[in-house]
Specification:
This protein has about 375 residues and is α/β, with parallel strands linked by helices. The chain has two domains: about 180 residues, Rossmann fold (3-Layer(aba) Sandwich); about 100 residues, 3-Layer(aba) Sandwich (Rossmann fold). About 35% of the residues lie in helices and about 20% in strands. It has 14 helices and 15 strands. Helix 13 links the parallel strand 14 and strand 15. The radius of gyration is 21 Å and the shape is globular.
Length: about 375
Amino acid sequence: MREFLDGNTAVVRGALAAGCDFFAGYPITPASPILMQMMTEQPKRGGVAIQAEDEIASIGMCIGATMSGSRAMTATSGPGISLYSENIGLAIMTEAPLVIVDVQRMGPCTGAATTTGQGDVQFVRWGTAGGYPIIALAPSNIRECYELTMRAFSLAERFRTPVFVLIDKSLGATTVGVDVHEFVHHVVADRKLWRSSAQTTSRDFRPHSYEPRDAVPVMARYGDEATLRVTGSTHDERAFITKDRTTIDGLNNHLADKIEKHRDEIELVVEDLEEGADTLFLSYGVTAGSMRESVITARRQGRKVSALCILSLWPLPETALARAFKGIERIVVAELNLGLYRREIERLARHIEVVGLTRLDGGLITPSQFLELLK
């Protein structure tokens, strides 16, 4: 069945298909349609959608909802993602499985509310205290908005961590004809919850576990039998605040290792690699559409070129990147910012020329701009 959908609607549908039963947000262009659709759809399914008093309250409500057993999502843009910063850190520290949608617009500050951009790429990775790893996905078309939102919920549950879905104003607001029957339904596993046994009582429950350090502990819900504590401060496995250095080391390495040591489960790219090509086009998000079109045109003209669309921005998909770099003499990184992701590519491709293709006037990068760099 063919429908006309925009990216924001596809995100909502993907979240609902993933079992999202709690949403909190605050109106902000261009993410407001997600809030409005959730306010309409959640009550039909027995879920909850709240327009909070501000962005800080929105993400805070979502963290609380996850601790009560819900699958929660919030959505914002521009200044809103900045206001999320402290509570993103709280979600990391409390290991709250939370999906955060960032419909990017041009910044800085208020910027241009109705103009597209991709300026939050580094912010979602480093925009909270401590520098601990997160997971961020970047759909490049309407179908991926649906599928990667479902995948975000799956990864959030698997790793007990906030997961970002990064789209932008152009992808979120543009209506496109799509074959919805081709959308892939990603199964989100049920949350593993702690249960008492003949050998354990509620006092034995540990909301966090650091051995082995890359393991993800089971959760408990507020109101169930387990004694559940939550704190944003450095804590032990029972969530008691601690100054013990061995315990602190275990906690901090656990928060990193549970993601970094399982990159193979997270890494996701779309490869279009051509044997003999010496140029690699690399992009993500809405810009990948022009990249794909330019590759088709270039090959029709007899020119060899490879392309890589990155769907999992963080952690950096190093295995896929290393594979794509083989035999390549020049990499063109296209993005609607000052070259934020290009810096990561330069770090990995030290002996390859890396060229940035950027645009900062609110317009989209065109196929002709890619082709110009092949001359």
